[in-house]
Design the sequence.
């Protein structure tokens, strides 16, 4: 039973074969798996094409973030649209050193984001502290304070590396939704 | 010229002579002994070593009489056996830069605050306080400037060790 992409638009014959296959599937595999197989690809398609990162420029990598949005690389064609409120975002893009004074605020931003959410550590500082390794005032890597999904190395990273990282994140989002999350928290 | 009048743009020799008469024992001049140093009438940097008891008096005198209106920086040096507070003052009219260094013993890390003489010294002193732990007496608000309030160490001291060091 191929549910995707015919769940979006199909002819009458296609709909008949699709709906009978769905009923067979529901009988054999149960409601939860059927709904997951039916809706998962739709969620994944919608979510991976509208990754909204938080517009939170910390350091010099934020310049590269801006360059990735500029016409040459045009991150917006992948749906990477920066939102200024954490309530409207899916991705926390941390691009710079995290001083210890910032940690409570960053943690709070992360918790304000609605789930499912992803965290991208961009540049050496967010990955491991970078040039501030062993500093008295800098957190030694983003993963010390919250789970990180994608690491994009570079100092600073190139805009194409950032696009590449987000394409990797697309695969992760796809896998997350296709695994199915109906009736799950 | 009367002794009370403000000298707008004092020369090297003016500053040297006036400070030597006003503070004969407590402030000493450190001459530049480099071979290619300029002649005295062309010099634009002066180095003083001051006793910390007269620091506030000296700073007020320099601002009011010799017109050093700008405190470029107030910082500290950790020499392990003692600490040193360094002041850089400048004159807007002839670009003269004056450096005062004050020795502070480790068992009494206090020095008079000059935040009321130059307003700009306020944050410089707070920074020296948070990084070296030197207490500036009479400062209007001696708190940590940039580091978090819960820090109980002074990171720029030589005795502070990072994880990678022994």
Sequence:
């Amino acid at each position: 039973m191929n549910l995707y992409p015919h769940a979006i638009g199909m002819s009458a014959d296609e709909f008949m074969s699709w709906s009978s296959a769905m009923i067979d599937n529901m009988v054999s595999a149960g409601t939860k798996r059927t709904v997951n197989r039916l809706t998962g690809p739709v969620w994944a398609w919608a979510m991976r094409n509208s990754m909204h990162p938080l517009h939170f420029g910390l350091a010099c990598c934020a310049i590269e973030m801006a360059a990735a949005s500029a016409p040459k690389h045009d991150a917006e064609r992948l749906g990477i649209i920066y939102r200024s409120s954490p309530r409207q975002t899916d991705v926390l893009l941390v691009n710079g050193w995290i001083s210890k004074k910032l940690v409570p605020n960053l943690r709070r931003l992360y918790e304000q984001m609605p789930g499912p959410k992803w965290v991208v550590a961009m540049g050496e500082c967010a990955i491991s502290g970078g040039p501030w390794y062993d500093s008295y005032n800098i957190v030694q890597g983003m993963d010390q304070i919250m789970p990180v999904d994608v690491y994009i190395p570079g100092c600073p990273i190139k805009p194409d590396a950032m696009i590449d990282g987000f394409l990797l994140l697309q695969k992760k989002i796809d896998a997350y939704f296709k695994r199915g999350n109906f009736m799950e928290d | 010229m009367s002794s009370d009048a403000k000298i707008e743009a004092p020369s090297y020799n003016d500053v040297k002579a006036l400070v030597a008469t006003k503070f004969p024992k407590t402030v000493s001049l450190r001459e530049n002994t480099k071979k290619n140093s300029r002649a005295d009438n062309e010099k634009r940097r002066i180095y003083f070593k001051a006793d910390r008891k007269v620091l506030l008096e000296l700073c007020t005198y320099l601002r009011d009489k010799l017109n050093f209106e700008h405190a470029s920086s107030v910082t500290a040096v950790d020499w392990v056996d003692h600490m040193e507070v360094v002041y850089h003052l400048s004159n807007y009219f002839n670009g003269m830069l004056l450096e005062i260094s004050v020795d502070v013993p480790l068992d009494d890390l206090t020095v008079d605050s000059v935040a009321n003489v130059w307003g700009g010294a306020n944050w410089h002193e707070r920074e020296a306080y948070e990084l070296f732990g030197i207490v500036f007496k009479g400062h209007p608000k001696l708190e940590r400037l940039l580091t978090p309030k819960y820090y109980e160490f002074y990171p720029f001291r030589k005795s502070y060790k990072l994880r990678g060091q022994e």
Remarks:
- Chain B touches chain A at residues 146-148, 153, 155, 160, 162-164 (CB under 8 Å).
- Chain B is about 20% helix and 25% strand.
- The beta strands of chain B are 27-30, 45-50, 70-78, 82-90, 97-105, 110-112, 135-137.
- Residues 52 and 102 of chain B are 6 Å apart (CA to CA).
